[in-house]
Amino acid sequence: MSRIYGDPIEVWTRDGEPARFVWRDRLYVVRTVLDHWVTSREWWKISENDPGERRFWRVEASPGGQNGTYELRFDTASGGWLMLRAWD
User: Fold this and answer.
1) Beta partners for residue 2, in sequence order
2) Per mean pLDDT, which range of 25-39, 46-60, 64-78 is the poorest?
3) Which of 14, 58, 73, 85 pairs as cysteine with 19 (C-beta 3.0–4.6 A)?
4) pLDDT at residue 44 tops 60
5) CB of 44 within 8 A of CB of 53?
6) Over 60: is that where the pLDDT of 62 sits?
């Protein structure tokens, strides 16, 4: 079962992929990227240089012990990251 959040998170990347993130004051280390996809919409653009993309990653990550599955989103317009979904 998954839960939807939409919480802003801080993400560190390596080779263009999320490597670590902080969510709710806990540091998570990405163990595996399970999936990656990009969605583009013209109306998301805020300038001519903005591709109007949302980039999604489904990752397996851990704040220490047990791994969980999380869906992260990067917004090219704002440069911000969100925690979209977490699976129990």
Assistant:
1) 87
2) 46-60
3) 14
4) no
5) yes
6) yes
Query: In the numeric block, which tokens belong to residue 58?
Result: 């489904």
Question: What mean pLDDT is reported for the chain?
Answer: 89
- Residue that is written with structure tokens 């440069």 in the block: 79
Instruction: Write the secondary structure of the chain as one string of H (helix), E (strand) and C (coil).
Output: CEEEEEEEEEEEEECCEEEEEEECCEEEEEEEEEEEEEEECHHHCCCCCCCCEEEEEEEEEECCCCCEEEEEEEECCCCCEEEEEEEC
Q: What does the H/E/C string look like for 39-57?
A: EECHHHCCCCCCCCEEEEE
Beta-carbon contacts of 72 under 8 Å, excluding residues fewer than 6 positions away, are 9, 11, 18, 21, 56, 57, 58, 59, 81, 82, 83, 84
Cα distance between residue 78 and residue 52, in whole Å: 10
What is the pTM for the complete model shown?
A: 0.85
